[in-house]
Each structure stands twice: as C-alpha cells, then as structure tokens.
Design brief:
CATH architecture: 3-Layer(aba) Sandwich
Distance between the termini: 33 Å
CATH class: Alpha Beta
Helix content: 25-40%
Length: 212
Amino acid sequence: MKNYENVTIFEHPLIQHKVAILRDEKTSTKEFRELVEEITTLMVYEALKDVPTKKVMVRTPLELTEQTMVADNAVSIVPILRAGLGMVNGVHTLFPLARVGHIGMYRNEETLQPCEYYCKLPDGIENSIAILLDPMLATGGSAVAAIDVLKKRGCKDIRLMNIIGAPIGVETVAEAHPDVKIYVSTLDRQLNDVGYILPGLGDAGDRLFGTK
C-alpha cells in the first residue's frame, strides 16, 4: 500500500494484543464488545493529542492556579450504524461530554456500494472535531459516503477511526478525502470475493450485538 500523509496505522503492542483476542471466533459477545471499546479508547488517546483546549482557574487546597482543560464541545462522535455504535463508549471514556450523531449506511451485497438510510447530527457539529467511527474499513465506500455527509454539514476537521482496515479501503478514503485524518489499529491483507476483510474478524456488527 502507498504511504499517505493522512493515514496512521497503529503499531502499539497493547492494541495488537487486544486485536488478536478480538479476531478469535471463540471470543464471546461480551468480551468482543469490551475489547472494541478498549481499543477505541487507546486509539482516541493518540489521535486527539491536538484537541482544542481552554485555560481555567482552579483553586487547590493551597492556592489559585491556572490549568488547561478540553474546550467545550471540542469533540463530536459519529458512529456509522450499526457497528460503529460499539466504539462510542470507547470515545466517551475520554470525552464523556461529547455529543453523538448517527449516520446509517448499509452495503448493497450485490454492488458493494453504500446506501444511506439515516442521518441525525448534533447542532454545531461543524465547529468541533467530528470523530467518525466504524470498526471495519473494507471497500471504503461507506466511509467516503459518510465523510461526504459530514462535509455537506460544514465539518472541516474529520477523523476517521477504524479497528481493522483493508489496503483498498484505506487507499479509497485517503485518495477521496486527503484532508481527513485516518486512524487504523491494524492493516489486514485483502478483501475476499464478497467484500469481507481477510483475515479480519467476521461481521463486526453481528459479533457486537450477538445477532449470529
């Protein structure tokens, strides 16, 4: 895969350890859900080092001191339904006041093209960092379409976060939206003939919600 300035592939051993357990077909729904949240939190910690801040005065037991805090409404969370919902709590662990919007996309199993069926975004999202969440970045079609939606709402700082990515998906998004920062915890080998990532982890939504 080509090197893109807007793409970060995480190499942290703790993330890789958790991804290994996540892949295992024997991992329970409960543990799978917890791992998705934990991996997301680790990724957000690295990806949001430049989050906007503000200065505040805090009185300690000894004196008044100036301190740095995250700015109000600095971050908005936008999961791509339905699997992206599994990553929301991982972001809320670090940004508990972040508002949440939702973009509903499903993949046409014949054409593999994304189809939008729902969109509800927080007011003022264009003034915040919009963190777009989806555990799997396969063809990249849904991510490109969701980014298009956010840009139409005026979002200028969009961060896409995926746990597992395929090279073609990463390349598709990176080339379609070179201004969007893309964070992937693990880059896998390829897609199979029906658009699933290999070695992957199966259907993330089904494993998150126990629907298979």
